[in-house]
Write a structure and sequence with these properties.
- Strands 9-10-8-7-6-5-15-16-17 form a 9-stranded mixed sheet, with helices on both faces.
- It has helices spanning about 45-55, 55-60, 70, 75-85, 105-120, 135-150, 155-165, 195-205, 215-225, 275-285, 315-325, 350-360, 380-390, 415-435, and strands at about 1-5, 20-25, 25-30, 95, 170-175, 210, 230, 235-240, 255, 260-265, 295, 300-305, 330-335, 340-345, 370-375, 395-400, 410, 440, 440-445.
- It has about 450 residues and is an alpha/beta fold.
- Helices cover about 35% and strands about 15% of the residues.
- It has one domain (about 1-435): Rossmann fold (3-Layer(aba) Sandwich), CATH 3.40.50.
- The chain binds ligand L263DTV3.
Length: about 450
């Protein structure tokens, strides 16, 4: 067994030791809080972006230096060397919390990520809002430099499908910021009808799952496609297939879905539910005085939203959240796009959920499968990391600004995600037509 704690971020809250895990071959044990903002390269300020353009350390701080070819076609030994992580998708980590240290965040660390959040807001090109053209050029140049490390999945599309040859593509999609644009009101993060139609078609071509930080029923309400698998609460609430091929025993509660298929519910943090309810109500009481602060109950995860709160109140809000957590050492704090998230301290994350779903879909032999994961947030990094450690994997970050990421490829925004998914569908359909003897609308003889 190999356990690895990430050390590429300035602040690490490591709440686990080896005694916390009963059975794990993939041991990414992480609860880190480097920046609370939308994660530009280390919360990079304009000054450090200038450095990035000049090739100075800010640019080098990107965690991933993987090229497209090394990402999508790495050999197991190379992956292990690259990541220091041993991955076998035959076993799924079962996390049992045992020991917990006190929850401590020092003020210096908190200010670091509050500053980071200030320095990069809003995330889009600020010149559009009246900043000097020079700033715009610097940002464009910084993005171009970053793009060399994380090329567009659209321009790399041929490489992706070349690798998919004679493999089963399985698609994993994050929701917010990937399928729907980021908006102020989390209840209005709607997916467009076009995107829904695209994902629906995608699911007819490849097994497709949504892996979201939201509560599973909530993300289902947004997506409304019964043909997908869903993992909510950052993977802690999975509804997946009950298939148990390749010797993999699918853990969970078996039920029939609406179509009569056997499905399994897997909730590795189920015992935390009463605690999450309690902490949600304490948090709501505590933050009530802060205008526009809001707590979203995502079942096994509580999301505290900063987006609409005045920046001068962010530190107060963060301190209030941290103070609540002092009484709950079984819970951890992580961050996302202008949110802090409270979650059970178990070694389970989006990467583990992807691993679980791949196994339960019958892809215990990773040479037969090309998992494609598309996400925009810090929590998606756990899934990128899993894919990097597999024989084949295609990890794609959605971002229009340079961000530190383990993803090999990138897409700017949800509209590009939709274009990429459409191309996958077209590629799959063209392949089927060829196999059926139809090419360019005409029959041909082999
Ligand atoms: O894993 P995801 O599906 O990406 O969910 C992560 C969080 O997404 C939502 O928050 C984010 O999107 C909101 C709506 O666009 C935005 O207002 C917020 O600032 C973003 O952080 C969701 O509301 C959270 O519950 C999810 O945990």
């Amino acid at each position: 067994m190999i356990y690895k704690c990430e050390t590429n971020s300035p602040i690490i809250f490591d709440r686990f030791d080896q005694g916390d895990i009963k059975s794990a071959e993939v041991g990414l044990l992480r609860a880190s809080l480097p920046t609370l903002g939308e994660g530009m390269v280390g919360g990079m300020s304009l000054r450090s972006k200038r450095a990035a353009v000049c090739g100075e350390p800010a640019a080098a701080s990107c965690a991933s230096t993987l090229s497209v070819s090394s990402l999508v076609a790495a050999s197991p030994s190379k992956s292990a060397a690259t990541n220091g992580t041993s991955v076998s998708i035959k076993s799924v980590a079962v996390a049992v919390p045992k020991k917990h240290g006190p929850y401590v965040v020092d003020k210096g660390h908190m200010i670091t990520w509050i500053d980071a959040m200030r320095s990069q807001s809003p995330p889009q090109f600020r010149s559009l809002h009246g900043e000097a053209p020079e700033t715009f050029d610097i940002e464009t140049a910084a993005y171009s430099a970053w793009l060399e490390k994380h090329p567009s999945a659209l321009s790399s599309f041929d490489k992706v499908v070349k690798l998919a040859k004679s493999k089963q593509i399985v698609v994993f999609l994050d929701y917010d910021g990937t399928l729907s644009p980021i908006v102020d009101n989390p209840d209005r993060a709607l997916m467009s009808d076009e995107m829904r139609a695209t994902v629906k078609e995608l699911a007819t071509c490849f097994p497709t799952a949504i892996i979201s930080g939201r509560a599973r029923p909530k993300v289902y309400d947004f997506v409304q496609l019964s043909e997908l698998y869903y993992a909510g609460s950052h993977g802690m609430d999975i509804m997946g297939p009950a298939k148990s091929s390749s010797g993999f025993k699918v853990n969970g509660t078996r039920v029939k879905d609406k179509k009569g298929n056997d499905v399994v519910f897997f909730q590795p943090a189920s015992e935390y539910l009463p605690m999450m309810d309690k902490v949600c109500s304490v948090l709501n009481d505590t933050i009530r005085t802060i205008k526009d602060a809001r707590v979203e109950h995502n079942k096994y995860c509580l999301t505290v939203h900063f987006r609409l709160v005045k920046e001068e109140l962010w530190e107060t809000l963060a301190t209030k959240v941290q103070n609540v957590l002092k009484d709950y050492p079984m819970l951890s704090l992580t961050h996302g796009r202008k949110v802090l998230e409270v979650r059970p301290s178990i070694a389970w994350d989006k990467g583990k959920a992807v691993n679980y779903l791949l196994n339960s879909l019958g892809f215990a032999d990773s040479s037969d499968v090309l998992p494609v994961y598309i996400g925009d947030d810090r929590t998606d990094e756990d899934a990128f990391k899993l894919l990097n450690g597999m024989k084949h994997g295609c990890s794609i970050l959605v971002s229009s600004i340079p961000k530190s990421t383990k993803a090999a490829l990138s897409l700017r925004e949800p509209s590009e995600v939709m274009e990429f998914l459409r191309r996958l569908v077209q590629w799959k359909k063209r392949g089927s037509e060829k196999r059926n003897g139809v090419q360019n609308g005409r029959y041909f003889i082999n």
